[in-house]
């Protein structure tokens, strides 16, 4: 492949190969790459080279020296773990295949590499396999909000997700999710629907499997649309099956790519809570959408609210605010639009007086003084202020409530 | 009245009179009572005596010396405020009337005086007019939870209130509320329904008007039931109308009498939020019940959750916990009863292996090693552990998933 020549090209090929050898978050493998660089790490992982004493010490330093972390033994075990996959390595073929899908491999140092992943430190992925509108860039974390939740979402959960995704896209944010059924699917679908042309990728689906397959199968059409107008991202290479381990690691990537994670609906135990915990570990804000206390699908979000690990999110404005600095021009005042009450801004004496004023038949000032418990002078002064505000009127019989309500 | 003779009796009469002269939270009046005692305070308030220099200095000390708080002027204004009501004073008659209602006046120093009110400091009420089962005592704050919310409650709000009130009474707690329509009425009604005989007053209604009237009129039957089997409490004397000022002060008393205040449903602006703020000012825990983000009646509770001033309450156990030490025997585990998943407690290698195991046709160990990315030795060890847990089985063709799901 001509694109993969030179030092950068050789590093890309090496990382592509390593991503097939090593499962996501294989700490020994990640430490090896950090200590030896991807090309030597690949030579060591495939048994071409062996680690010398100095490299072993670097590994020990990266992994932490504990009795069970004896670096020689850990590396030996890792080599055994990687060995069965060595014969299947064909990174150039993988790179050609992703290109045929209109995609690319993004590695650290590329302009496209998301700065947000730096918070994962040693745990950052070796590379990202990407399909879709990568030319527009991978959204900045301040402009990306993860919407996650149950696969078996309710009508309520779907409606909230649709409103959040639509509102986020209208505010210039991107919606990150996992491509699964339920909340994930609704988030991607509504983000795509809300996005105009020329806005960049409205939505990112972070997958637990290789990008040559659409999983789950029922979401194939949706995921094709995401690949066409958004971004599909995976840490595992083409051909990889979606295993439980990869799902758990995928959740970590969702949390890392988004400036904030909002759980829309989640049962008491739910993968979405796992994503929320990863976000919290990374110091990223977590939001939870409240729902009926009778809905099992909100038990998980209420749990997050109760233990203080999430803030209450009721609309897109709040969700966008969590992820980054708020663009005031795009902010709305939803929920803050109740008209002021007639007694707003009144002092205690005016309140007492307002309560004392009869609605129909006027009464003299002396009577108001007794009812309100105020001296006559104060009643006269207060009536003047209330009259200015159309809260009190005087007629032949005396004072009564004014027309303003 | 023979019951009102002696020093204690004279103090009761004085406080009964003062509660008619002074509105709730009349700071000058409260300071005067604190500095001069109730009997001299009444003599000064009615113009029989005047405040000397020393007393004026004490008042200034209690009210804080600020330019606008010049004590002589403040007292002069207060005297003017109280003067129109002096001619209506008839405290012995009021005490006789409350006794005819089967009630009593409770003053500081009485055995029945709630210790919880001490947190109000100078702002504590002058006295409490009480009807109902006062003989059983006024519940301790650790055993009293205020349930408050909208007058125009929804079916959801009523159902949650009923569940909370029932669960609280079953846990030995007492339900405090304001006797209003909606959430308040539901709270009192369900608490009464859940209470057995001999449990003391299941519910306390703190009123903004005199206890000779039932307000609002539509709750008359309910309030009669509360008077018979619970407690009606007011700071204002018999004959007092429920004014807006008295409602606001009544909210403060609700917050002060309960160990915790739970807002079930509240609009963005709602008197229930006022009660919640009073509770927070007193350092008492505040709870809020989440609801649909589409319900205007939950906008206020979500506001409390979002700004961190309330914790998320989804059931009676959580509400009771807020108020005081939890009686472990009465605690339930609601919401925590989902069965454990089959992968609970498994390590990373077992998870990888479990994912690699086919469901139907068995495969050899070497194949599992490639799929799982594990050395053969580890696959063998892991299969042994999974087999013990019925998560893996061996047959003629090799290994596959076990019967446990």
TrEMBL record, chains A, B:
Smf/DprA SLOG domain span: 105-316
Domain of life: Bacteria
Secretion signal span: none
Record-linked Gene3D superfamilies: 3.40.50.450
InterPro entries for this protein: DprA (IPR003488), DrpA_SLOG (IPR057666)
Transmembrane segments: none
Family membership noted in the UniProt record: Belongs to the DprA/Smf family.
Protein name according to UniProt: DNA-processing protein DprA
